[in-house]
Amino acid sequence: MPSILRCMSCGQEYPIQTLLYTCEHCGNLLDVQHDLDTLRRTVTRSLFDQRLGTLDTPYKSGVWRYKELIYPDLPDHFIVSRSEGNTNLYPAPKLAAWAGVKTLYLKHEGENPTGSFKDRGMTTGVTQARVLGMRRVACASTGNTSASMAAYATFAEMDGIVFFQNSHIALGKLSQAIAYGATCIQINADFDRNLELVREISEKLGIYVLNSVNPFRLEGQKSIMFETIQQLRWNVPDWIVCPGGNLGNSSSFGKGLYELHQLGLIDRIPRIAIIQAEGANPLYLAYQHDFEEYKPVHAETIATAIKIGNPVNYAKAARTIRWTNGVVEQVTDQQIMDAKALIDGQGIGCEPASACSLAGARKLVEMGVIQPHETVVGILTGHILKDPDATIGYHNNSLENLSAAYPNRLYQVEPSVDEITRILETKAH
Do the beta carbons of residue 305 and residue 144 sit within 8 Å? Predict the structure, then answer.
């Protein structure tokens, strides 16, 4: 049976080449569903292990290495890929000690071509746009989505269109979208309203939407879990800890892990912890009441990548928590920036939102949710240069309402050997 689109709520099914983002019957989110019974007979760990290090297209991509689990019946000539994925999984013993666990790994999705995990979803989203014959693609963005979509759109010879809010956009991200040639429009509205606008205008003008409401985006992003567990030699960690913004990653993680387990590629499913910023925490608030009530919030956080008050993938993220016996927690901007300083100080580096993973892991250990002996994988979603202003502001101790617990001071001196020597001797002690 070929892959299909299926509504996660009412079960309505559609052919995979149908141009839909939500169910025509009930309006809820769609999943890409593969024929797991057939795949169970053909997909093995050794199949994916044999492809490691290949130079062959499309399998040299860290997404399309798992093509059978991403888009099995797709002819290769449709694939739009920049060899995304293949990101490192770093052992972090010093950060593990700070968080209070024996073993911590950091999966650095900032090592993707445009500097964030979004490239994994964009290769599949733009590929589906090509399958559907679309010439223009669009997204609303807090930054990373725009950079990725702009790059992949022009790479595929499509026109990219980005809706930004008109404030609090990290320039490292905005500059990428402009550089890659997208039509960039700043609108006097927050991300949530911009997402509504991009969907309305795209429907009116026949443009393909590439926000994570698009189910093909999540198919690419779930490969983060495939690659992580393959890098662990198919050993399953106890916890996956990830930031939560529009909740595409956490939604895709649950789906990917469920599929791996159904196919017998893993013997158990790790628990997922979704960490939100305290100022952008609608999933956390709903989790407090077992998801019986959901209310959007007005989002405010220094972590611009997760500054989202009405996440489109809420229902799928809640499903992930149920599937994985997971948890949702929140951390303050102070905790985020302190954790970021420590990650940066290990030579790994990340954008602010990424640091939710480390800050959240530490908090969950302190709460007794994560046990010290357990193995934790934290997901770093974006590159350190995505938001350099936040980094410099932290170390200069100039961020509003925040103080630097781990500053690395920038020294300014006259061209004097004595002055420079005094600084270096002080630092040596």
Answer: yes
Q: What is the pLDDT of residue 172?
A: 73
Eight-class DSSP state of 56:
S
The 3-class secondary structure across 284-338, one letter per residue, is HHHHCCCCCCCCCCCCCCCCHHHCCCCCCCHHHHHHHHHHHCCEEEEECHHHHHH
Confidence at residue 168, expressed as pLDDT on a 0 to 100 scale: 66
Q: Report the sign of the C-alpha dihedral through residues 309, 310, 313, 318, in that order.
A: positive
Centre a 10 Å sphere on the Cβ of residue 39 and count the other Cβ atoms it contains.
16
Alpha-carbon distances, residue 409 vs 62, 343, 369, 384, 396 (angstroms): 38, 17, 35, 18, 7
Q: What is the DSSP string of 109-147?
A: GGGSTTSBTHHHHHHHHHHHHHHTT-SEEEEEESSHHHH
Chain centroid to CA 395: how far?
A: 26
Nearest-10 crossing angle of helices 333-345, 356-366: 110
Q: Average pLDDT by consecutive 10-residue portion of the chain (429 residues)?
A: 93 97 96 96 97 96 98 97 98 98 98 97 98 96 88 98 78 85 90 88 95 95 98 98 96 98 98 98 98 95 93 96 98 98 98 98 98 98 94 96 95 94 86
Characterize 151-165 residue by residue with b for buried, 16 or more Cβ atoms within 10 angstroms of its Cβ, and e for exposed: bbbebbebebbbbbb
Interatomic CA distance for residues 257 and 252, integer angstroms: 9
CB 127 within 8 A of CB 82: no
Of 184, 166, 188, the C-alpha closest to 175 is 184
Which SS3 state, helix, strand or coil, does residue 25 take?
coil
**Predicted model pTM:** 0.96
Q: Which tokens sit at 112?
A: 């993707």
CA–CA dist 7, 32 (Å, integer): 9
| Domains, in order of start, for the chain | 89-114+217-395 (3.40.50.1100)
Are the CB atoms for 116 and 124 separated by under 8 Å? Answer: no
**C-alpha 351: how far from its chain's center?**
12
Return the closest-CA partner of residue 146 out of 194, 101, 93: 194
d(CA 278, CA 379): 18
Query: How many angstroms separate the CA atoms of 229 and 231, rounded?
Result: 5
